[in-house]
Write a structure and sequence with these properties.
It is elongated and about 55 Å long. Helix 1 crosses helix 2. It has a domain at 11-60. The mean pLDDT is 84. The chain has helices spanning 11-23, 28-41, 49-60. The chain is mainly alpha-helical and 82 residues long. It has 3 helices and no strands. The chain starts with 10 loop residues before the first helix and ends in a 22-residue tail after the last helix.
Amino acid sequence: MATLTIRNLPDRVRDRLRVRAAENGRSMEAEARMILEESLIEPGKVDLSWVEAIIEVGNEFGGIELDIPADAPAEVPDFTDL
C-alpha cells in the first residue's frame, strides 16, 4: 500500500471531510480513501439525486410544458449508464 500526504488542504475542506467522515462512521483518513476510490475507480458514477428533487418539485406544481425547438435532435440521449 502507498502513502499519500496532502499539503495545504484548506481548512474548510478539512472541516467538511471531518463532518462527512463522522456522518459515515469513518475516520477522516478512511473517508478520504473512500472518496478517492469512488471517484477514480467508478468515474461514471454520478449523483443525480438533485434531478429527482427537481422532478418532485415540478410534479407538486402539476409539471411544466416545454417548447421543443424544431431543430432538436430526434433521439433522446441515454443517461442510464451514468
